[in-house]
Write a structure and sequence with these properties.
The protein is mainly alpha-helical. The chain contains 5 helices and 2 strands. Strand 1 (about 65-70) and strand 2 (about 75) form a beta hairpin. The chain starts with 12 loop residues before the first helix and ends with a helix. About 20% of the residues are buried. The mean pLDDT is about 90.
């Protein structure tokens, strides 16, 4: 799996790493049970701090997409659908913020759409 970052981006490196893995999960390039590259190796290849990579992996763990254990590494545990939905949700949040919606306004919009779709 190839993890890419844009050093010139305003998005923090850890978030870029997490986004790359999320996309790979959503595109089914990664499947449940597969291991992510070792943080030390990713850091070496990208010429960044290993703790930055681990922070990105921790974001994915907190989202329930990977299992992260010392000595065992990072293993994908989520289904592609979960990763896809998370990507859509993040896009919705970004679009809502751009449109000037508050969190409660975005949640209300989602509730309305949910009700219309049932």
């Amino acid at each position: 799996m190839l993890i890419r970052i844009d050093a010139g981006s305003t998005v923090p490196l850890a978030e870029q790493i997490a986004a790359t893995v999320r996309r790979a999960l959503a595109d089914e390039a990664l499947k449940p049970g597969e291991r992510l590259p070792a943080a030390r190796e990713v850091a070496r290849l990208l010429d960044i701090n290993m703790h930055t990579v681990l922070r990105g992996y921790q974001l994915l763990r907190d989202e329930g997409l990977i299992d992260l254990r010392r000595g065992r590494g990072a293993v994908v545990i989520a289904a592609p659908e979960q990763a896809r939905l998370r990507e859509f949700a993040l896009q919705l949040v970004a679009a809502a913020r751009e449109a000037g919606l508050s969190e409660s306004g975005a949640v209300e919009l989602l509730r309305d759409c949910w009700a219309e779709g049932s």
